[in-house]
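Morning!

This is the sequence you dropped in the shared folder:
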Amino acid sequence: MDILLDEITHDALFINGATPVTPSISEGLKQRLKIKLLTFKGEWFLDTNYGTPYFQQIFGKNRSKGTVDIIFRQVISSDQDVVTITRFASKLTSDRVYSLNFSVKSRDGTTIEIKELEVGI
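The structure's back. Tokens below.
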């Protein structure tokens, strides 16, 4: 169980003074994946290995979309609750915005879908 975050702002939710938690493994997984994909590796001082290796492997010259796809797939697959990636689609625009849509099967058997996660590379 994790503290429930707003899906748009990613801020912690507080309802009538209470802090709700994620209601299921699948909701916790969806939230965890978004957090990990939006966190730069080395950004969190308590675990400098946590996050996505944007500065280490993604940002820079001559990074092909295929290479970036592989990195994102590895980050997604590394979560303990991800059984398999069932769908993965990405696009890279001419102004270097990488957009990611994917679905994963969680260990509780549900399918989690994340749409239009955008990162400037």
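Headline: Strands lie at 82-92, 97-106, 111-120.

More detail when I'm at my desk.
O.
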